[in-house]
Design brief:
The protein is mainly alpha-helical. The protein has 1 helix and no strands. It is elongated, with a radius of gyration of 16 Å.
Amino acid sequence: MTVAEVPPPALRSGGVLVRNQYSVISLGTERASVDLGKLSMLG
């Protein structure tokens, strides 16, 4: 896993930029998403 500082995204006309102060990465949730993706690719 890599954490990187990146510039804020460019906004389109009428767009909204939302500031996120906290974020949590749950390995269980991430793994479930990956497993579900693999199942859908296999049919």
